[in-house]
Design goal:
Elements: E1 2-10, E2 13-21, E3 31-40, H1 42-49, E4 60-61, E5 65-73, E6 83-87, E7 102-105, E8 111-112, H2 119-141, E9 150-153, H3 159-170, E10 174-179, H4 185-191, E11 195-198, H5 200-203, E12 214-219, H6 223-232, E13 233-241, H7 255-259, E14 263-266, H8 274-287, H9 290-296, E15 297-301, H10 305-313, E16 320-324
Parallel strand pairs: 9-10, 9-12, 10-11, 12-13, 13-14, 15-16
Antiparallel strand pairs: 1-2, 1-4, 3-5, 3-7, 3-16, 5-6, 6-8
């Protein structure tokens, strides 16, 4: 038997509860793992609080992310004792996830834990931080270099935003962090932001083309914030879009794209190819300051994961929540 945070939906309503399950109930897979840490991402928050259409199969074990040790494997690339990271691939949505002491997975989904990280540090990063690195890689593929101008990070006190600020700051970029939490300016500057702005400046409907300011943008917010960020991006600049905290709508015109040559780069972390995942984690190991990472993280036991998920969806969380399994 093993403990897991299980989500249930029935005629009597929805529940999220810590339960005991049998290994025989686990889905098929070629790798059995012991999970040491998981984490709370925005999508996990939606699933655990039942505030978004994340879960598509019931009952569901929560947790799109996990890190730990392989117990048994019939996959050629993995053996017992290997440390692993898992992000996405539909876990916590269509397949039992990693807020559990045990999970059965496909070896093709796993990423090798870089030697620079403990399993706890890997989950302090989680899908949010891995997504932030995918955004930085997209900016670099576009040709962005330190010295090209200001880089805007929206939703800066969230998981993606916090790691993006830390990464871009360490790499030498002039980072402007947008947040609705004025009390967190010191936190953002500690991470690497050179300036902090009120998210209200971006959150309302704006003109199709605005004064050029940003060399690049990392946006985890969507809606009017993303539209305004595009409208303010300089000629030839790039915007990496990876989230929808404000909304899934995109009220923009084609003007920034056809008159200023702005590029909108969509960032998907859930189904990204394994080679790109490994590249992102290897770069995180090289470019993310462990001290900055520790400033981002709060740890809770599995028994408090549902409580912290509610706080996350209520906007009461900054940085990353690590769940100790």
């Amino acid at each position: 038997m093993f403990k897991a945070l299980q989500l249930n939906k029935s005629d009597t309503g929805f529940s999220a509860a810590l339960v005991s399950l049998d290994e025989a109930e686990l889905p098929v897979g070629d790798v059995l793992v012991q999970v040491e840490y998981s984490t709370l991402n925005y999508k996990d928050g939606q699933a655990i609080t039942h505030t978004g259409p994340v879960v598509r199969s019931w009952p569901m074990v929560a947790g799109i992310d996990g890190a730990g040790t392989v117990l048994e494997s019939s996959h050629p690339d993995w053996k017992a004792g290997d440390p692993f990271i898992h992000n996405g691939w539909g876990l916590g949505e269509t397949r039992w996830g990693l807020m559990a002491e045990r999970a059965r997975l496909q070896g093709d989904w796993l990423v090798r834990l870089p030697a620079a990280f403990s399993t706890r540090q890997a989950m302090a990063i989680g899908t949010a931080g891995y997504t932030a690195m995918l955004c930085v890689l997209a900016l670099e593929r576009h040709g962005l270099q330190p010295g090209d101008g200001e880089v805007l990070v929206t939703g800066a006190t969230g998981g993606v935003g916090s790691v993006a600020v830390a990464l871009l700051g360490k790499l030498g970029y002039k980072v402007v962090a947008a947040t609705g939490k004025a009390t967190e300016e010191a936190y953002l500057r500690q991470l690497g932001a050179g300036a902090v702005m009120d998210r209200a400046e971006l959150a309302a409907p704006g003109k199709p083309l605005q004064k050029e300011r940003w060399a690049a943008v990392v946006d985890a917010v969507g809606s009017h914030t993303l539209a305004n960020a595009c409208a303010q991006t300089r000629y030839g600049g790039v915007v990496a879009a990876c989230g929808l905290a404000q909304g899934a709508d995109f009220p923009v015109t084609v003007m920034p794209f056809i008159l200023r040559g702005v590029t909108l780069a969509g960032i998907d972390s859930v189904m990204a190819p394994l080679a790109r995942r490994q590249q992102a984690w290897d770069r995180l190991a090289a470019d993310l300051d462990p001290a900055k990472l520790e400033a981002i993280v709060e740890e809770v036991p599995l028994s408090r994961a549902a409580e912290k998920a509610a706080d996350l969806m209520a906007g009461k969380v900054r940085g990353r929540i690590v769940v100790k399994i």
